[in-house]
Amino acid sequence: MPPTTNLLLILISISIFPFFTNGALQPQHQHAHGGGCIPAERAALLSFKEGVTSNNTNLLASWQGQDCCRWRGVSCSNRTGHVIKLRLRNPNVTLYAYGDEDANALFGEISPSLLSLKHLEHLDLSMNCLLGPDGQIPHFLGSMVNLRYLNLSGIPFNGRVPSQLGNLSKLQYLDLGQDTGYPGMYSTDITWLTKLHILKFLSMSGVTLSGIVEWPHTLNMIPPLRVIDLSWCQLDSANQSLPHLNLTKLEKLDLSGNDFEHSLGSGWFWKATSLKYLGLGENRLSGQLPDTLGNMTYLQVLDISDNGTTDMRMTGNLENLCSLEILDISINGINGDIAVLMKSLPQCTRKKLQQLDLASNNFTGTLPNFISDFTRLSILSISYNSLVGPIPPQLGNLTCLTSLCIYCNGLTESIPNHLNGSVPIEIGSLINLISLDLSNNRFTGVITEEHFANLTSLKEIDLSSNNLNILLNSDWRPPSTLESAGFASCQMGPLFPPWLQRLKTNGLDISSNALKGKFPDWFWSAFSHANYLNISNNQISGSLPTHMDGMAFKELYLGSNRLTGPIPTFPTNITKLDISNNTFSETIPSNLEASQLEVLSMHSNQIGGYIPESICKLQQLAYLDLSNNILEGEIPQCFDIFNIEFLILGNNSLSGKIPTFLQNNTDMKFLDLAWNKFSGRLPTWIGKLVNLRFLILGHNKFSDNIPVGITKLGYLQYLDLSGNSFSGAIPWHLSNLTFMTTLQEELTDMHVDVEYERNMIVFPRYTIGADRLGQILSVNTKGQHLIYHNQLKYFVGIDLSCNSLTGEIPKDLTSLDALVNFNLSSNQLSGQIPNMIGAMQSLESLDLSRNNLSGEIPSSLSSLTSLSYLNLSYNSLSGRIPSGHQLDTLNTENPSIMYIGNNGLCGPPVHKNCPGNDPSTSSDLERSKEEFDPLTFYFGLVLGFLMGLWMVFCALLFKKTWRVAYFRLFDKVYDQVYVFVAVKWASFGKNTDAE
């Protein structure tokens, strides 16, 4: 929590705390009434103690003897001797707050014996685990009518919040806040709160209140409220109409983490002009700030971060926010010039603002020179924007800065330093700076010791992924003790700079620095106490120390170097180890003792022998990659391992069957055993791995039928069973592979919880780059093995090629709309190609070659607009080859190769005419059809008629003799026709009368 926020909360608490205590702050050992505690109350406390089943911190160890007023956490009234305060908050809040099971917490239940403490005013049991048998808040607490302070926060209760708490009419402080990691409590009606007429503090953070629409009206009926925390309550909206706001004393309102999908300016809270703290982060608010923001002159903290919208605009009235100390508008996609935004903040704000977070937006432009006006700024974060240009020298005037984060922008040019003649001290003048992150920009130039000369408070620095030359004297000593230092993708090679040995840092990243040669003699002793070390992607040679088990590493990354020799024993407390892409030989150590190891990557070495049984001791192992080695033998049966999500053992000489212990790893998402010697049947329990995304078993010796259970893998994105000896039919109901039936806009990455973000697989505290996934998935598609690197959408596919499958292609396969690669080649499939194959709109590569397919090629193939590779060769297909659309663009150099080996096919592009068609007539007819244009035909017809009519008219108009002759001829013809018709009509009349 920011220091200013802490100060604000302390001031609020101080202002209202006297109302909660009412004498409880008097020394516990003084009793004006002249005796120890009241026996009945002592018995009630001892009964409460009996309900506590675990007390590892000895919080209740002092609960002995007659005078309970001297017990830890118990306070008595000086006047009456009654117990008025019971404070048993878990002293170790940090671990518990993150959802870990805190061994320091009190476990057990809240005993009803507390009802005997009839004068109790203050009850704090927070951050413990006093759940009782049903895990709910005890209803009897609503009978403790003298309570003024009740804090049950952090206790992982479930079930409904009891409305009986509304009976506590004297209550001024109520905290039921929950850790959002638990299912937690809920309420469908909070009108009972209106009975708490003098309530000043209310926190129901993490309590599910979804469906309660009129919650603002309920709170508006409690005018004394000063603090309201309804964060993470799943509230649906905050735009209810409140004609009159009664909350005139409200100082803090936290509504972050809800689901307000409406305009930012429509919220009722803008009327609360007394607010000092307004938290609206992690909702889905959009639009611009209202002008009424200008009325909130007391506002010190404004947090509207992480609303995930693209149209939020900072156009509200900011001129009167002279009390503002913290402004957080990060992660909103806000557009605009950063200088314009900062200029909209008045001078009075610039002198008070302490924290400014603009990260993860779309701000452009350069940092303005008037950044120096923000003289009290301690935290500045402008990361993940589109800023350009240099860092202004005036930034060096912000001597209060403790944290500066400018990573991931488009900043260019050199950082001013003395070597290039730049006078401003800039970064080096920030004497209070603790954290500096300039990584992932385009900075150039040289970093010298003068940049660090005055950074005596610096603890964290990250200059990674720039074009900086780290040029420090060999005898340079850092002015402070760094906790972490990131120099990845800088220029400090080719030799290890001697000044590294004096960093004494807990974390060092010097990856991708073109370092060469062996490790210096001082290296491992200098960093043996570091927790994090990344030296990957260099050109370091030589071997590692034989014994590294005494070192402190928790994360060690040595991948992509030229290291050789045996694999040493690593620290027992290590959690992540990567030695991939080296030349390590011999075997995996047989004495693996790292019980906390989560990630182990040894791929692409020359490691031989067997996978040791000791690997089964790695019970926390979630990611194991031993691919591209020369391992042999069977995989050990590790029935104590349940957490594996990524198992990558491809391209070795492993044999045997798939170990049965894997069926217990139901969270597995990636299984790669390809290019080994595994044999036998594919186990039916494979269907239990319901979260599996990639199943790669190609090029082994598996046989028998493909189990039907494979159709239960609804999240499966890629299935490779190629190059085995599978027989029988392709399983029906492959449409159950629902991930392949839904068109995906872009399958760019995979999260452990099947979530998508940023082109990489995000593992818990470990990231697997998409390029590595591409290397694992060398896809057999489009007639060749291709590596697509980060284009993971190409990994939506099925490859069953090179087996002995028989029967027909299941018709329901055509429902796999998201399928991109489909390869059934080199089997013994028969029957026809499904007519609805044209429904597979994402298909880019289709290979059905070398089977026994018969019948005609479905005309629907021409509707596959994404198709770029088609191979139907060496089957028994017949009839006319369909054409049009995408089919006419495939393999234009030699299109017939797609259909070779099908003697019954005719028509283009093969050189065989279809029966009954004359070549010349057919071609002329086709040509005439192609050349015939009805619009042109009718236009010419009308034009010709008009031209002819006009020529006759002109001739009669200008040639008198022709005109006379024409009308004479017309009269003659008229007379002849008239006589003929008259005679015929008379003759017809006589015949009719005669009859």
TrEMBL record:
Query: Transmembrane ranges?
Result: 937-958
Tell me the PANTHER family matching this sequence. Answer: LEUCINE-RICH REPEAT-CONTAINING N-TERMINAL PLANT-TYPE DOMAIN-CONTAINING PROTEIN, LRR RECEPTOR-LIKE KINASE
**Classification via PROSITE patterns:** LRR
Q: Single GO cellular component annotation?
A: plasma membrane
Q: Where in the cell is it found?
A: Cell membrane
Leucine-rich repeat-containing N-terminal plant-type domain spans which residues?
40-77
Q: List keywords of the entry alphabetically.
A: Cell membrane, Glycoprotein, Leucine-rich repeat, Membrane, Repeat, Signal, Transmembrane, Transmembrane helix
Superkingdom, taxonomy of origin: Eukaryota
Q: Which InterPro entries match?
A: Leu-rich_rpt, Leu-rich_rpt_typical-subtyp, LRR_dom_sf, LRR_N_plant-typ, RLP23-like
Leader sequence segment: 1-23
Task: Please state which protein family the record places this protein in.
Answer: Belongs to the RLP family.
Q: Which residues form a coiled coil?
A: none
Pfam families xref list: LRR_1 (PF00560), LRR_6 (PF13516), LRR_8 (PF13855), LRRNT_2 (PF08263)
Q: What is this protein called?
A: Leucine-rich repeat-containing N-terminal plant-type domain-containing protein
Q: Specify where it is mainly localized.
A: membrane
The answer, when asked if Signal is one of the entry's keywords, is yes
